[in-house]
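WARN retry 2 of 3 for item q-0093 after timeout on previous attempt; input resubmitted unchanged.
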Amino acid sequence: MNRVPVNPELLSWARVRAGADAFDLQVRFPKLAEWESGELQPTLKQLEGFAKAVHAPIGYLFLPAPPEEPMPIPDFRTLGGRKVARPSPNLLDMIYACQERQSWYREYALLTQQPSLRFVGSSTTAMPAEDAAVSMAKLLAFNLDARRDCRTWTEALRQFIVQAERIGVMVMVTGVVLSNNRRHLDPEEFRGFALSDDRAPLVFINGADTKAAQMFTLAHELAHLWLGASALSDASPASTGGHRVEQWCNQVAAELLAPLAVVRDELQRDEALDQTLARLARRFKVSTLVILRRLLDAGVLNRADFGRAYAEEVARLRQLMATGAGGGDFYLTTMARVSRRFASALVESTLEGRTLYRDAFRMLGIAKTETFNELGRNLHFAL
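OK item q-0093 returned
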């Protein structure tokens, strides 16, 4: 039996990097402890299986020492006031996949002579958050009047995504890496990121997060595009500190979703907090988390009361999310995962022979021609 020489340190590094459960790996690879101690070396087939299990390129395991994996975009996430040190392979693979899609779409946009998008990079952090929010609301056509016809804030979120795509932003929402339902994205690690480009701006939203959080994440990441700055964020209505860019984007997002002057006008004396949250969430068609943030900004809640109320509301919303219905239409899910704008362009390019089917399948996360054709029919292509 041929065994391959591998630095045991790399096996331990790959396991820790993946955040894999040691017991589960030990069941799949009974000799793992001996491999990591250097007492035994794996066969090539075993090493290939291990690399797949920990989502590491097998070439990494033949290096003399663990590689450095710098974040490919600016990282503004913090944990306990400190920057997050190590990205998971799930996060890295998701960023790389979105960068590939963005690169493809930029070439498509140039080929089809799409104009550059002037809103990308049109703001700076020196601009008052209120002015930036007004600019965004006007272009997005996502003001209070536009939201009035939405029955719920979840419907408003869907409309928000449609409006962002209408102005040229690819909005991708998924809770798994590519189409692998066994590789779940962790909202505790990140909520979203923005990839800025004047012809192919992209916003990614972690679909494993609550719907309540996703609306704020979308608004926050759009603010990054208005700055013309790619970034990985832990966007949350609860965040008031951190990097100045993140502070500005949070302020803009909150103002876009619930203008503070209007919130103040809507307040009623001696109303119970839960009633205020429910009423204003209906009024603004946003989540109760955004309303809580605005009540903090308005001085209705102090920081301690806000922290307690926010934690309770997050727990309530997560419970609702856990008891909600799953499933859904596969093709609608696919379009949400890669964005309708991107999917439509890719299907068109593939049908016209400008993109190889294998490349389209990879970027869409599908494997069969019939699946691709049905997706095309859902996008109103004649097939």
